[in-house]
Write a structure and sequence with these properties.
This protein is mainly alpha-helical and about 110 residues long. The chain has one domain. It contains four helices and two strands. α2 runs antiparallel to α4 and α3 runs antiparallel to α4. It is globular.
Length: about 110
């Protein structure tokens, strides 16, 4: 078993920072947003900030949003879309699950 590598430490720091940001936003936005909108924002941040993708032509991973921005900036639209497409589908499914949760929660509480 290997110890912590520099890559693992960087990912750990990144994940802790993103999770702290999401928790901070979750607690501070309850005044401005309804619970549904707050959950949709949380799902969006979780998916777009925490899911990694493989860096093109490298054997390492990076946050998907970062790959999409750099590949788009370099003019590699196909690679950027290939990175963003699974995130988009997963985000849409998560939003659908959030809507269904609130629909059934409200529907069952009315009975």
């Amino acid at each position: 078993m290997t110890g912590l590598t520099a890559t693992m430490i960087i990912w750990l720091i990144y994940n802790v920072a993103v999770t702290s940001l999401i928790v901070f936003l979750w607690r501070s936005l309850h005044v401005l947003f309804t619970p549904l909108l707050r959950n949709l924002l949380t799902v969006t941040l979780l998916i777009w900030l925490l899911i990694p993708s493989q860096v093109p032509s490298q054997e390492s991973f990076a946050p998907s949003w970062l790959i999409v921005i750099f590949e788009s900036g370099l003019g590699h639209g196909t690679v950027a879309w290939q990175t963003a497409e699974p995130l988009l589908y997963f985000w849409l499914l998560s939003c659908l699950a959030t809507f269904l949760h609130y629909y059934f929660r409200r529907h069952l509480s009315d009975q």
